[in-house]
Amino acid sequence: MTLDPARWLWAAGAILLWLALIALIVWRERRARARARARSEAMAGDSEAVLVAFASQTGFAEELAWMTAKALGQGGVGARVLSFSDMDIETLKTAGRALLIVSTTGEGDPPDAAAGFVRRAMGCNADLSDLRFGLLALGDRSYDRFCGFGHAVDGWLRRSGAEPLFDPVEVDDGDAGAIRHWQHQLNQIAGVASAPDWTPPAYEPWRLASRTLVNPGSPGAEAYHLAFEPAGPAPDWSAGDIAEIGVPARDGQPAPGAREYSIASLPEDGRLELLIRLMRRPDGQLGLASGWLTQTLALGDEVGMRVRVNRGFHGPSAETPLILIGNGTGIAGLRAHLKARASAGAGAWLLFGERTRAHDAFFDAELQAWLASGVLTRLDRAFSRDAGGGRYVQDLISSAAADVRAWVDRGAAVYVCGSLEGMSQGVNSALQQALGEARLLELLETGRYRRDVY
Ligand SMILES: Cc1cc2nc3c(=O)[nH]c(=O)nc-3n(C[C@H](O)[C@H](O)[C@H](O)COP(=O)(O)O)c2cc1C
């Protein structure tokens, strides 16, 4: 052992330096942790998560609700996304700030899933003086009551003492400008300068592979079964989803925009199939989109198409018994569901209405094969123009009311696809008769009664 004091001094100095270094590291770590804690406490204290509530019929409002929550999150603002069906007065009273995204359906009506909230909460004024809200109202100006439900929600909130954060933003037919305006408001709330990217998916090129007239000789307008093959990358979709086709400008007229059709096939078919009715205006002119798709477009021609996710009409689990009800070209969406049931090894009951058995039994061979294989547990069809006819799909429900009840007792979901006028109201009243008003409302609110009507 050395007794050289200089060496002792060096050793002590080195140890002190090492201890000081460790102390510095520990101190800096503690300070960083304290800062992070303060930041997170400040965030939590400063803003309870913003409530983002949606009332959606076909899924657009729901999609925007999730994008809204994501945009807030990007600015460090927490968000809680809730359907109107899961919301009550207390939720609003205690929310602090709420962003409400609501669509309008029917004739100025609330989406099905919001019916319960309307009944429970909106009948009377509540004390919502602690609530500040922003409203995005989705609608379409071609309807008489543009954004009818959005306006009803806005009026009720104001009457209840809630304070608007900004004027309601109205969206006409998905108008991108109005949605950008909403994003701008979100950026203000989230304190971010740049808008998140909400651009809808671009149109993909698809080639017309086949087109078949499915109802030659029908007393109704011609209906065509079209199949498209992807000319580029094929998107994924589920039964119930919608194809948006970009209709090009023609004859010096401006492009009429996109048209929506229920998809009648599944991605595993390798083709996107549609059932399109040729529309004629009173003056005999063909519908712009249906005329182009069923008459002008040639085999091999390309169209721009994109898939719109229609969550409100996605199928239930394979274990849930399924009743499918529809008329006319509404069978397109139901066919995609039947294909999905077939591949899941599940069955379904189809009730379908058209004009004549001889000419309008759409997809008859396929339905017979599904009956034989058990995918169709039961098939009921009504043909209104047949001898002794005058029977519509809703009459099938009335005749089979006891069976409909038994299926619903076993947990069945009821999906309706087809025309808004006549069919959907008729089917609704027949279901009300069969199940009782309260029961049908309960099915509606719990997502067991779903409609895709147009
Ligand atoms: C059957 C049906 C009825 C509609 N009725 C109205 C209406 O009365 N007033 C309106 O402004 N928009 C109406 N719309 C347009 C929708 O509000 C609009 O398409 C909205 O973007 C749908 O949002 P969602 O997918 O969240 O339900 C209707 C749409 C459909 C399909």
From TrEMBL:
PROSITE patterns: FAD_FR, FLAVODOXIN_LIKE. The chain crosses the membrane at residues 6-27. Residues 201-323 form the FAD-binding FR-type domain. It is an enzyme of class 1 (oxidoreductase). The keyword Coiled coil does not apply. Keywords: Electron transport, Flavoprotein, FMN, Membrane, Transmembrane, Transmembrane helix, Transport. Residues 50-187 form the Flavodoxin-like domain. This is NADPH--hemoprotein reductase. The lineage of its organism: Bacteria, Pseudomonadati, Pseudomonadota, Alphaproteobacteria, Caulobacterales.
